[in-house]
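User: I'll paste a sequence; please echo it back and then give the predicted structure.

Assistant: Echoing your sequence first, then the prediction.
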Amino acid sequence: MLQLRGMQAKNTSYAVPALEKGLRILEDLSASERPLSLVELAELQGRSRNEIYRMLACLEQQGYVRRDPETKHYALSLKLFRLSHNHPPVERLRAAVDRQLRELAAVLGESCHACVLDGGTLTVIAQRSGGERIRLFFDYGAEFDPLETCSGKLLLSRYRGEALRRRLEGTFWNELSAPRQKSVLAELADIQDRDLLREPSQLRPGVTDLAVVVGHPDVVLATLAVSHLPGRPKAKTLANIEQALRQTAGKLQADLGF
């Protein structure tokens, strides 16, 4: 489920305080790794217990939250999960990405693709080829170990603690020596605040991989990436590619409402 915490609504003269309070409760419950009590939610919201209780009662009645009868703590129900599956987020993301990749590939003349993390696997959700006769091609649905790609490392770097450990369990992490594992963690920590990563490809010698994150600091959805083949007569510089990737990521984030 997508976390909404930190996403700020645009200033508007049509404010609906009750709705805003309800949405903030959903954000707080979504951001928490455990159910929260009425007191904890009131403290997070900076509001009275009576005020938050009324909102919780409404959300519980509508099926968005559930209250544990023993602990009296609140958690999200599966209703938001079911609603999200009526409009699959990956398909919406893929449709928005495809439009931007088409333009990016035309501008750069390079093969461009977009990836998401699916458990411990990096999956290609969209791709567009450059216009030259010799070019790289990424199959839609192709899967990679995230530790061997720019995109995968950028996405993994956004996770912390137990969440990162669960993601790493799906990679070749357990096959690494202890010193190599320490090195990987240090590398992920080093890039956790970067929006773009550029490095020699681990999969194709002579190719330079560039990837940029798409999303919000709390909700990193995907990466846009280019695998650059050097030596082509009309090839763009790496600086040009980085600029185009960042611009395209900005357009995509605007399309997605970030």
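The CA atoms of residues 123 and 143 lie 5 Å apart. The domain at 17-85 is CATH 1.10.10.10 (Arc Repressor Mutant, subunit A).
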